[in-house]
Batch of 4 targets.
Target 1
Amino acid sequence: MSACATPRPSGSPSERPTDADSSRPSGNAGRSAPSAPASSSRPGGRLRRPLRGSGPDGARTADLSASVSVFLIALPLSLGIALATGAPLQAGLVAAAVGGIVAGRFGGAPLQVSGPAAGLTVVVAELIHHYGWRTTCAITVLAGLAQLGLSALRTARSALMVSPAIVHGMIAGIGVTIALAQLHIVLGGSPESSAVANVLALPGQLADPHPAALTVGAVTVAVVLLWPRLRGRAGELTRRVFPAALAAVALSTALAALAGLRLPRVDLPSWHSHALPSLPDGPVLGLLAAVLTVTLVAGVESLLSAMASDKLAVARTLPEHLSGVRIPRADLDRELRGQGLANMVSGALGGLPVTGVAVRTAANIQAGAVSRNSTILHGIWVLLASGLLVGLLELIPLAALAALVMVVGVQMVKIVHIRSVTRHREVLVYAATTAGVVLLGVLEGVGIGVVVAVALALHRLARTRIVCEIPEGGGPDGAGSVHRVRVRGQLTFLAVPRLSRVLGQVPEGSRVVVELDGSFTDHAAYETLRDWETSHTAHGGSVEITGRSAPCVQEPPASHGCAPWRPWRNHQCTRPHPGEGSGGFPVGSQLLGGLSNFQRTTAPLVREELARLAREGQRPSQLFIACADSRLVTSMITSSGPGDLFTVRNVGNLVPPPGAEASDDSVAAAIEYAVEVLRVESITVCGHSGCGAMQTLHDSGPGGGALSPGTPLGRWLTHGRPSVERLAARRGSPPRPGRQHHVPRTAVPGIARTPAAEPREADELEALCLANVVQQLDHLRAHPCVARRLSEGSLELHGMYFHVGEAQAYVLDEPGNGNGGGAPVFAPVHPGAAVA
């Protein structure tokens, strides 16, 4: 198999959804796996699905407490975001309630909190400025419909292919725009229509601030920044009961009321005059661009927040009484569908666009939420507050909300994001996106970021640095020294001329180490390196290729060497070079050569998977009992990998029955360990054609005359005598030793063949090999641990036969399993056959 093909790791049980609430399709749909007893504590056992509804009282209490915390954060922020967009303040409350109830109920991320988000502030403000509020509501409805269409096409993960540098730059640009606009309100003025206009008007605003608004804004900012620094148990309790946003708005409102400051305050008109959407009015292309902008920005922000919620939920530690609760991973397509429904409802009710909000989602998880009930309850609290707390909300100064949103905007420019893009050399993409959003708008800024990201990727792909280093102390022509050819960057056809020029400078007969730093090597570069390596080696030199791309370049070509599934015997590629013998192996050992080939080509590909198995322990689902014949490669014929099979191999794939004379405890111990400790789900006995053990039994005759009971092999093969007797009983007369009887396979007594099998005649040795598989299954059923699991219905036994010469596998279909009874049938396995 190609060394460049990354092995597909088996999904561990911990990676699968464990809650029926997740709508993602399962690969085991339609099948029910046997479940282990709840009290099982076997080492390396599978993670068992917790009982649904475990600890309902504790879960309900946790969700209720978390919903109140999120509500206290969402209420002031929703009003502030509505103020920043220029929309009616009630629109923020509508979006918060709909986001909690609708998106919380139908979304795919159970712990994500949705509502009006700062990330859409600039977009919505531009829409209101150009089209008016009622048309903006209609655009929100159409954007929700577009999100529903995208979810039906299952394109949610496609939105995540946008570079994180672009996303972070877009968020930073929006944050700068928000902060500049809200700063004018904090200073007692009114924001301009664009970020550039706000910057130009800022000096005049700073020269003539409004003292009352500035005081309220300063108090709000101070509380927001200092509230998380409260220390001690009392401080922790205070922060938990009163989140920073609520405390800041409450204190600044109390200050304004007690001091009698004359300031603009929240004005919530009667719900009877609440504006609802109207038919879109404006140029069609402009409206389509507006719908596309809201769809993409809201969708990407929601999906990123949903993925972040998975990480936060995994990282936290739940209390002991909630340890059995399992939260399913986010279903992104379902989440996009829930966001679409929420936007349609919010727009239809005159609310702001809805998106997943990372800040409120993090607060929800940190507050201990364990299900979507917390999100839904928070929406209900917002809905009740908008009807019952109108008088209280109208006491809030607009300067306090503006200061709160201004702090949120500044915090959207995250230092950790700047460090991340700098470390990955994408700061240019980040800066271009941020500047584009601030100067031109969100959609234009994202477009600029995409163009810069593509240009940077092409530049990196084309820019490759290739140097040759010759250490001092070599001969006059460099021979005798180790030449190091260092390749920095991706190795593509564009770099082939430089690569050929540098390789041409290496003296013949020298030792060369080629270091490939890039992660990609295309076909042209591969051929160039392989041709030069072949030529250099033919002239007495040696070449070693290292680095991330080494496995792909080191793969032998298909014309010779170890091409996939060529005969393994005497493989030249596994023979070490002269002088490489070590570790007790003789020079030229094929085994040592194979180990070296594994370390060079396979180990880098499987190291991560083996490290996972080392951490988690073995969890095989099958016990595979096969013959020790060197031609039977179990991993190849079963397409299995590390951790899949618990394999027992012996001469003749024999299973000594319990209590048998001259019994061998090693096989019984392996069976007991697999059945009782590893809790395997099935046991397969695999025989094969041309089995030497069966040949010996066949030649010895029914009495076993050719066997020497005094030798270990003779004593072991006595466990195969029942197979000979089984075949003889089926025929009605014992076979003559040493004589082969050619009969059609369908006529072999006790071993029937399906019509699909090739009607080729088989000799008595093959009949004995087939009978041996059936007999060893009977021996298996006699073991107490196997019999108990079979009676429970949690274990299955399977028979298998592999014809080595034909590379054809057959599986045993026991009588009564749909074949009409009678003798067991070995049915051939065809390519593409469904797995039961």
Target 2
Amino acid sequence: MSTLVIVESPTKARTIRNYLPSGYKVEASMGHVRDLPQSASEIPAAVKGEKWAQLGVNVDADFEPVYVVPKDKKKIVTQLKDALKDVDELILATDEDREGESISWHLYQLLKPKVPTKRMVFHEITQDAIKKALKNCRNIDEQLVRAQETRRILDRLVGYTLSPLLWKKIAWGLSAGRVQSVAVRLLVTKERQRRAFHEGTYWDLKASLEKDKTSFAAQLVALGGTKIANGGDFDAATGQIVAGRNVLLLNEEQAVALKERLTGKTWNVTDIEERPVTRKPAPPFTTSTLQQESNRKLRLSARDTMRIAQNLYEQGYITYMRTDSVHLSDQAIAAARSCVEKLYGQQYLSPQPRQYTTKSKGAQEAHEAIRPAGSTFRTPQETGLGGRELAVYDLIWKRTVACQMADSRQTQISVQLQVEDAGFRSSGKRIEFPGYLRAYVEGSDDPEAALEDQEVILPSLKVGDRPNCTELEAVGHETQPPARYTEATLVKTLESEGIGRPSTYASIIGTIIDKGYAQLVNNALIPTFTAFAVTDLLEKHFPDIVDPSFTSKMEQTLDDIATGEAKWLPYLQQFYLGDKGLETLVKEQESQIDATKARTVELENLAAKVRIGKYGPYIEVENGDGVVTASIPKDLTPADLDPKQVEVLLRQKTTGPDQVGRHPETGEPIYVKIGAYGPYVQLGDKSEENPKPKQASLPKGITPENVTLEMAVGLLALPRTLGTHPVTGSKIQASLGRFGPYIVHDQGKEGKDYRSLKAADNVLTITLERALELLSEPKKGRSSTNSKSKAALRELGIHPEDEEPVNIYDGPYGPYIKHGKTNASIPEGESVENITLATALELLAAKASTAKSTRKTTKSTTSKSKSTASKSTAKSSTTATKKKAAEG
């Protein structure tokens, strides 16, 4: 008897193949094989004329979806149908969540098998798990499929109904989404809070003390019996002390005077309090907490974390990575406890096995937390993994093992000291027994927060002791605006509010960035002016769509549909076609939305208008001579746009740029200007004879006010030739680029080798010796778009036709295969490590044939009549427009 097993990816197929008996053939569907139409060209001819055709959902016939096989999946479907002809049984073994259930259902509908068909699910890819799953196959869960289909239809209705409205009223190419728009609103709300924030200033004293040759620090907390004000006592809306707070606010003069008065006086220990504290380990990872911790500790995006976790799962290293559950199986608990005993000893084992329960009602995507796979856990060193895969596995391994370890026992120490009428406090922490901290310490959203395993040692002190004060300084503080969201904190907020599902957070955050609603700067998600305009429009005209509580209730209804507690069709009818349904609202509101107002962002305390234009945001102000406009630089955030910035931008347009002097050699004027990409210097005036004057961006941290003539001349002289490389004889230059200052080793045909300068390096003064030092260091990250000048992730071998190398490189959209001028993306779900030369040659050949097909189509199109060409152009435009509509 022969059996065909279908999974989603080649990696998963290879891993499962190892655990199945002979007679089992495993093929990959490469993800979804069928979906709603993504463009006008995919809409079937039979329904093209229907008014609902662009939605891909027949809203007039019980929301019946129109499913199509995308062009790039037709070959795969044909191959699966061929594979099915020679077998006696079909097993659908896609992932165990709603998405996986949906893929299995679509495969069944498409393949129409005439042989017995089973649904196999498993939580990890190990021999035991696969054997057990084979014995416990079931039918496709229709309720799960219906819940996923309802979610898909709902996302399509929201995205394809609201997005075209945004194109008309604000800017082409924008998108709205059921979860995406709420997430964008969260970012905008935080940025509004930063705009409304008023800074407060306060001073206190910090003392360095010594007892028995051990130094410790103490901070002023009270004066004359009154508490000293700190950051928590300020009202963020006024920058003043909160009304009713009985605190003493010191200014600089008072703090310095107090320091002088206390210098040389006697210090006394007046009270010591020791308080025992027990810390318990965090539960094992869910999808959400893995994304959060990976972002904090490894600085990985949610998208990268899920891609890496998917690879680890499909290779059999971890259990399924889309889960809301913190539950561990008995097998996992036993494996974790065995690791603890073996690596750390019996005393580090928790007295009883720890079992965690999931608080979220929606925790139904899987039955277990993310953990190392198998009945015994491989240590990170035993896996043979490397790079980011090793880092993520290490995180998962440590978190799982730590959850079965003993509590950490600590002692918090608080020492009160008095010097004249001033009260100081010194805090310490002593770890009596590290417990689980030996294996794992949970990260913190605050980069300055101390991790829990860092002891703060105080000397042995008792009441009446008189420590020696070695230094006393007055310290000024400024209150800080609310911190912007990082990916970690945004994921945490979305989950706590019940918005969306953790399995979708990675794609949602990716869409927000890709669509230009946010920039990721130093791990912070900064909303753009476009995000403000879109959020303003949706808040005013479609408030429910961006209301977290409304979206959370929607999510709950979708969960209820999955369990059979709610009916899908009545819900969709009410949401879309009801008296207050989305279709009705859009028809009512469209005529009421003034496009000029929709493209205008109103900011508090700003007289200038901010508008969204074709080429980005700009400011507009009326003066005596009419309307003056100026582009807003891309690095100027909504929270930082103030009247002073507006004045600088407008002055450049009305009175011309500031001149820092004249070039000592040419005599031409040098200006400091501000453009779309920030401030820069320019040599000479733009004219017919000189249409492109030389320009140079200012280095990060340098403001226009700080530019000197010497600095400007140096910047305009870039690139600087530092000398030649002692080995290659090729020149080495220093220059400034889009991503900051760098050096480049130009080796001609061999390519260019780039290195970014470190914070302490100055592009205007760096020496050849320092440049050679930097070039000798291993290259980090994606430092160049030219694959010749960066190391390959893997060298697969030589192409049999031309003997040119076939390598894998890391690109801005993930790893890809390169041969000559042909680049082929690595299929989703496939890992770099598992790509063979044979697989690479297939992917390159497919890419080359697609390119040839495209060229032929283009050539034939150009030979048609003007009338046909005109229709084709219109159709092409419609296709592109449809592709822009975003979902979810």
Target 3
Amino acid sequence: MTARRVPTSTYRLQVTADFDLESAAGVVDHVRDLGADWVYLSPVLQAEPGSQHGYDVVDHSHVDTDRGGDAALRALAEAAHAAGLGVLVDIVPNHVGVATPEANPWWWSLLEHGQGSPVAWAFDVDWDAGDGKVRVPVLDDRLLDAVELRDGKLFVGETAYPTAPGTVQDGDDVETVHARQHYAFVHWKRADHELNYRRFFAVNTLAAIRVEEPEVFASSHATIGGWFRDGLVDGLRIDHPDGLYDPAGYLQDLHGLTGGAWTLVEKILEPGEQLPSSWPVDGTTGYDALAVLDRVFVDPAGEDALTAASGAEPTDWQQLTHDTRRGIADGILGSEVARLARLLTPVAPDVPEDRIVDAVAEIVASFEVYRTYLPEGVQHLIDALERAAEARPDLDDVIDRIAPALVDPGHAAALRLQQTSGMVMAKGVEDTAFYRTSRLTTLSEVGADPSVFAVSVEAFHQAQRDRQGSWPHTMTTLTTHDTKRSEDTRARISVLAELGSEWTAALARLQSLAPLDDAVLADLLWQAIVGARPASRERLHAYAEKASREAGDSTTWTEPDEAFERQMHALVDAAFDDPEVVAVLDELDRTIDAAGWSNGLAQKLVQLTMPGVPDVYQGTEAWDRSLVDPDNRRPVDYAELRHVLATLDGPDDDGPERLPAVGLDGVAKVLVVSRALRLRRDHPELFTRYLGLEATGIAADHVLAFDRGGAVTVATRLPVGLERVGGWGDTLVHPVPLERVDLLTGRRFPASRGIPLAELLTDLPVALLVPVDVAEATTPGDAAAAPADASTSTTTAARTDGVADPDQQAEIEILEGHA
């Protein structure tokens, strides 16, 4: 194994059959030139035929052949390492894809041989609940009439299922053969309450595996271990650890397998929640950072106006999410709740089963975090038990009876509860409640709490100090393959908090022109249209369908309301075809374009330079106004991105005067991303601490600035309000007095007790300041332009004059080597 490496940044690539590992290897040079330190790959093990995401692994023994196979992964790793880049791979330990049984040898064996299968131990099946059979929910209303017997196999449509040896005889009909199998086809609607294998959330075609068993871990991770033995892969991203029986134990096993490689977990932390300190990992995939970062660019003054504009939206977020979680527990995850209740029957044998099910559903609906990790986090469980008893006094006696088992880390029910609560939280909150709230849809993002409207600058600084002190190598992100809206879409939507009555009036006008009988959804859709503009008609129709059915208020996936959906699609069409609607949207754009541009650049520079390891999701080095998946997984035009980067890096003697040509297009963002990533990669010594910087003057509330130990980030916030107060005026930002250069414009600033923002942010709403010697040492093309003022100079006395703050004095001492 190679020595442990920790990246300064990563660049996420979605590997598919259309953009395979060979294609990924072909953009290694772009990733390197951009300044990213590691290539970050989506899952690459053999997945379901045609899978676009790779989270439905069917065979752990090799790399997906459609994605290029083992040889292509080796070639990519070699290309990345030759370019000085590390390789991070996303892996899926919790479940496998079972939509196509013939593609999954383990699932095929389980169906063919039942409990006698040599891999029966791999799956989490409650055999007693299915009378010794696995229930497979694939039938429609025709039931067994939809099944055919061909060539000794049973077929549902074109999907083949095995038959047990000796169970097919000449003359047998389908019903007879079916009755002899180790599985039972059932109607798909029965999955909600009668399924007897654990799934990934409520996805019937993703069956959970028991990776806590040593044999399952060894078999499912043999290829992964080989990557590290061969030095191909440098780190891992772990998908959905909350679904595992024993996350801490699994991560410890993984730590041993990889030799302690850099490891991240896709863990959703609620506000105030901490990652378990006992886990041998480097941090999360960054949703916790995203939630804070988004909100520091939201105007708190807009809360009342936007809340009023959202109309019929529920005002009690806790009650809303309790109810949506309870709906999931009673609905699509009823099978998981029922299985948990069966484990509790022995501790309360005299209590009717339906009351235990009711109590369990109420308990899982009462969690305020995704799961506990007993004995760590037991207080979250106790809180859930108390909330459930308070909400349902009629179940108080049942909760008292089952509580001791649920808080016992060794009890099977306690372990099952931990696996179940996260499913209910994810489906009830992320995939339901987030679509039932619309006052500002920026707030409805994975890992965020929409009841928290905004975050102050000081609260942001405290969060960064905490991250630097506790999890300095955790990932930070703004966009992922799972975000509900991309960073630039959210940057535009956040502007609405500054518009207040203007947005309220525009929304009312849009509603009158293209009415929809669901005011909350209408608000959500108009914000999506505004945020993603100019998204295509096709993309917006697809988003509207997904958003409305996920919300489940006016239409659903299983029972679509055709009349409502016609009205909804008419709303989308009006955004293109109705001149009056287009005029309203165009007027909004005149304000939102510039402010969204400012927000987009500001939040990106902050994310790339704040504590943690920043990830850039594919294509988001330029503007990307995407919506929820699969919209955010569209192909990326790397040829164009290469061209933009090469243009920025080309010889240019015109100085900062060329920057206005950047305009509102993606060139400005490529400039910001490339300069920030290169600085982190080439000068990590400038990013060793965190010091929030003070601003003074008329517009002090409109700047976010911090010093990372030499690199200083300055970013504009609330740009509409800034314009309304007349611009920066006399506003100063106060870094340690030191002669610095802005890497984005090349301008040089003398050591002083304050830098005028009217001068610093003339061309761009952001600045990245470094000591002069660092700027002069950058490789050709790394600076946007030559320093504009070479006549200024500084001395040690000037740098220290008047500095009384001990933190700043210590900072000066650290920076002496750069002056």
Target 4
Amino acid sequence: MSSDAVTATPAQGVPLTGTAAGGETEQARYGLGASLQPADALAKVQGTFPYAADLWAEGLLWAAVLRSPHPHARIVSIDTAPAAEMPGVRAVITHEDVPGDATHGRRVADRPAFARDTVRHYGEPIAAVAADHPDTARLAAAAIAVEYEVLEPVTDPEKAFEAEPVHPDGNLIRHIPLRYGDESATGEVVVEGLYRIGRQDPAPIGAEAALAVPRTDGGVEIYTASTDPHTDRDLAAACFGLRPEQVKVVVTGVPGAMADREDLSVQLPLGLLAMRTGCPVKLAAGREESFLGHAHRHPTLLRYRHHADSEGRLVKVEAQILLDAGAYADDSADALAAAVSFAAGPYVVPHAAIDGWAVRTNNPPSGHVRGEGAMQVCAAYEGQMDKLAARLGMDPVELRMRNVMATGDLLPTGQTVTCPAPVAELLRAVRQAPLPPLPADGADGAPGPEEWLLPGGPEGAGDPGAVRRGIGFALGMVHMLGAEGADEVSTATVKVDGPVATVMCAAVETGQGFSTLARQIVQEVLGVEEVHVVAVDTDQPPAGPGARGRHTWVSGGAVERAAKMVRTQLLQPLAAKFGMSTELLTIADGKITSYDGVLSTTVAEALEGKELWATAQCRPHPTEPLDDTGQGDAFVSLAFAAIRAVVDVDVELGTIRVVEMAVAQDVGRVLNPQQLRARIEAGVTQGVGAALTEHLRVSRGVVRHPDLTAYPLPTALDAPDIRIVKLVEERDVVAPFGAKSVSAVPVVVSPAAVAAAVRAATGRPVNRLPIRPQAAVANP
């Protein structure tokens, strides 16, 4: 069956005007610096934008996956006959029906498509069913008889070192022993702390869904919300026993993406079922299956010891960082590298001894979630800075100012910070920003309307007199692009046909705004207002995953280079006609003019009757792996942020309301003010969720209540007032456009800032995220 048989309501675009980050009307209609709206904005608002769950094909079958009810068990037998004999069931598959590689993985090939002999985590796929109705498929999956020999799960990562191996590859995935400076150095003042970070789920708005369509050449096409379609294709082809060119991944609309869009939780069973039945097969996961089918943020245990002199200058940082990877390796080695490298934060530290481990357990798998590794250590090192300030009797901001990093300083990995690092400027900005007013009483001293804003709201159990306001500060950093020698490369093609330009690049639009940015780049370089971005599939050259700001940098850079090549093709005939070089011609406001004004024409006139195109690649400068002592130039560039949190805490009940988050961020260059503000606000809100409510509860390896009732996400009522008080536009000279990653660093810093504010309000040593009510009750 061809892809032409797959139907959905097409997306529609609409030209809209926008506003800049500060709220003022943006003057530029298009190009870099304008608040150009996404082309799909109207379709998404109207509910006509097609996602994978909306797709349909002639002869469609429905799939369901049987998942393990145990976190650790030996599979004694699997009887699929009860399912296969049910009316309407077309196929039942298990590990025996995987024709290619038995295991897969983005970094380490250690995860089976279906459990073979051993179940290693709760919810692991055991079998899959295709039937003519979704209810039939679910009933058939439940009818499969699996006999288990239940084993004792390894759920404590500290015990994983001595426990029986969870996996044939062992329990230890990676150990990084970072050593920097003098290990014997000590400070006059020493503070210690133990910190625990919980298991945050990506909790996408739309759960996983996909459609697999068999091809006449024996291959398969998969329509899904992938963020890295070429890697998905290669892993799926290896599992299916096919050549990569026999598998095509077509990217549908992505309803939010982090770790959940990098798993093959639905693609593999669907592809196998489609090839087995010869029919299109679709699966739209429910919320429980979504929680069980994708990776989560690494739960982390952190032990810290900070040394400082009597003036508050850091002397040494010691840390032990333990990441719970769950059953499989996934991105854990990368997350550990970030955690160890940034364990001291954006501070100058002359000596460091930091050990990091990532271990397998029988807990749910962990993987890439925005700010992985960096978020966990930020909560810990900022807790240590607050503790050190209290020991020294210093203002927490002043202590930070004495130690902040700047361009030219060294990371504990020995790498020189060559990018702009305006950390002091960011901290000053949030410190000097006006504070929000305190709640005011109404007439005659009666409770005012602000009582709604107190923890618990009006008529709540709490006493407004027990509410204390706290103010906390935090600094943080993230790395951009891949690290430790990752080959970051992207390819883009720009084509101009008369007044219309088209961009083809396999960089997936996940909500980060790449499609809009690509349009703006072409508008800026070529002066063409109408620009279309082609839908992504694996027939295009690869662009890599959408994480760590890489599409702004690498894919945006490829689009810019291709557009500049087309620009040269456009200008060369004009320049030759007037005996000048193309460098003497400029394109602005849809016009081409020469330096002396002799030549002046419109872009539309110059393009009339022409078809120009060019393909280009962008590849940043290489990095290197960390060595045996954690040293090496592992990162391409860094981004920084400072956040001041203001919270109100009911110190009797432990309820918390985040009043305001003031943000100052190092952005390099503002490319789209409206999108930038949205990304920062989203990152802060996600960080507030990690600080207060988001924790996937797991008991002895079993996920408890995997639903959005027991996993409370911040709502519009929970989201604080987010004020962007400063955007530092100091361009990174090695990055295209000079721009930096925007959305990850607020996620990293926000939880630490909220924790600092709760500490200030209660006097309690908040050392666990999310913050539990008992930790927010003030000392008597």
